[in-house]
């Protein structure tokens, strides 16, 4: 089979779904818009017949789609310093700094993590997510710091995406939240989807949201704030920010999900992707990496301890 060809049989849970949504749920490393482009170009077949995006999937349908070979991205490779936690021939783990966008988008075509890794890897990155997101299999927000996997080839990209889909990647974050969390630990299980009135935001959405689970543990309590560790079971957009806000403890510095003002000079939410662990697809052994807390986070903790 061609390395860029994917084939699967539709199961009961997929019955009646649009083909573009079905593929998006099956392989969430691909954006919905990119999938729709693949369909429009005639690269998706059901039972060996080319289909359109509005095709409704039936149980036992054989879905086959071809991901076009990656093309040389028209994105500037920039010599930007990277904090690399690990690297081999298949992937690298980077510690993303604050105020850095992961991939190019309107308003941010330069200075992104993709610009930096294109230079570092001499363009040798996976192409599955399209020319704007080479190597990107998952992402963290601009103002969130910490560990991120970058894939150098499509085989590794597919393997890591599959681990993400089955929740077999360890992802723990450190955060400082408003208020004193009473329980020493807990689990938030609440579906996350688009905010019903503000499309730029996510929200707990019982009607249209996707299954989302966050486990949290208190590390330290201060006067009016709590230092917590959050472990992702799923990986929805803004998951920790939305979930913690939903239980009355929004992240300190998060202007999107709280109106509470932070009495400290912060650039966005205090959230750090500390640990990432997974079974390496080539070596078949579990590997775990830890991104040290950024300096601003350490200083903030020291300030809170003195209150």
Q: What would you say this structure looks like, in words?
A:
By secondary structure, the protein is of the alpha+beta class. It is 18% helix and 27% strand. The protein has 6 helices and 15 strands. Helix 1 (19-26) crosses helix 2 (32-40). The radius of gyration is 20 Å and the shape is globular. The protein starts with a strand and ends with a helix.
Supply database-style keywords.
6 helices, globular, 307 residues, alpha+beta, nine-stranded mixed β-sheet, single chain, four-stranded antiparallel β-sheet
SSE topology:
Elements: E1 5-9, H1 19-26, H2 32-40, E2 44-46, E3 49-50, E4 62-66, E5 84-87, E6 91-96, H3 113-120, E7 145-151, H4 154-165, E8 170-178, E9 185-189, E10 192-194, E11 202-204, E12 213-221, E13 225-232, H5 239-246, E14 271-279, E15 286-290, H6 295-305
Parallel strand pairs: 7-14
Antiparallel strand pairs: 1-4, 2-3, 2-4, 5-6, 6-7, 8-13, 8-14, 9-12, 10-11, 12-13, 14-15
Helix pairs in contact: 1-2
Basic shape: globular
Instruction: Please work out how many helical segments DSSP would assign.
Output: 6
Largest sheet: 9 strands, mixed
N-to-C series of helices and strands: EHHEEEEEHEHEEEEEEHEEH
